[in-house]
Amino acid sequence: MKIKLIITLAILLSFSTIYANNSTEITLPDPSYESSFSIEKALYERRSIRSYDNTTSLALQEISQLLWAAYGVTKPYEKPVFLRGGLKTAPSAGALYPLEIYLVAWNVDELEAGIYKYFPENHSLILTIEGDKKNQLSSAAWNQTWMEGAASAIVYSAVYSRTTDKYGSRGQDRYVCMDLGHSAQNVYLQGVALGIGTCAVGAFNDKAIKKLLTLPDEETPLYIMPIGKIKE
């Protein structure tokens, strides 16, 4: 099991290096840890939103806040290395953090259209694919064209082996799903506080999403969360 973990970590580090060598790392603005919007109000107002104000872009600060809410580091640790930077905003079985997060951006201030990978340990983005990919994304999601009205989309994938190496099949059947739910709910609630809507999407062609994001073999796409300003 230790050998598998070492191999997995080596693969992850190699992908990070590849991205870093070909794209500039974008350090996101610091997230805010306080607001006047209560958690109770966010829970009360949380809804799945499929209609957005497509004339309004998202600010980079808002993207930063949403990604931090999803999987940001709240207590840094250098070791053990499987923490990948430290404890995060969302709980994870065994603190193994199997999720990877991508941002498909097409209407964000100070951010060119493209697909980015989020690195929680640095709270940063690295561009992996250039260009506006909203049409390809909605097409891969069985032509759910309402997604194109958003400003961006958060896409989750999982490296199941991070969890299954310790917990076996139960890791894939249950624990990774739990991890995903914890993180996605954070995005919902943070979005409410920012006036940003989202809707979790699980209906998509796995192979098409994997190809669009050029995911490595060990990553499985799980979830799409379009994000955009809520219509008044």
List keywords for this structure.
single chain; 232 residues; alpha+beta; NADH Oxidase; two-stranded antiparallel sheet; 7 helices; disordered N terminus
Molecular structure report:
With 232 residues, the protein is of the alpha+beta class. The protein has one domain (2-229): NADH Oxidase, CATH 3.40.109. The protein is built from seven helices and nine strands; from the N terminus they run αβααβββββαβααβαβ. The protein has helices at 2-22, 39-45, 60-71, 134-140, 161-167, 169-194, 206-213; strands spanning 25-27, 73-76, 86-88, 99-105, 114-119, 124-130, 152-158, 196-198, 220-229. It has a seven-stranded antiparallel sheet with strand order 1-6-5-4-7-9-8, sandwiched between helices. The chain has a two-stranded antiparallel ribbon with strand order 2-3. α3 (60-71) runs antiparallel to α6 and α5 (161-167) crosses α6. The longest helix has 26 residues, at 169-194. The chain starts with a helix and ends with a strand.
**Average predicted confidence as pLDDT:** 92
Q: Which topology does CATH recognise?
A: NADH Oxidase
From the 3D coordinates, which CATH architecture would you assign? 3-Layer(aba) Sandwich
Low-confidence stretches at least 5 residues in length (pLDDT < 50)? 1-21
What's the SSE blueprint?
Blueprint (H helix, E strand, L loop, with lengths): L1 H21 L2 E3 L11 H7 L14 H12 L1 E4 L9 E3 L10 E7 L8 E6 L4 E7 L3 H7 L11 E7 L2 H7 L1 H26 L1 E3 L7 H8 L6 E10 L3
Antiparallel strand pairs: 1-6, 2-3, 4-5, 4-7, 5-6, 7-9, 8-9
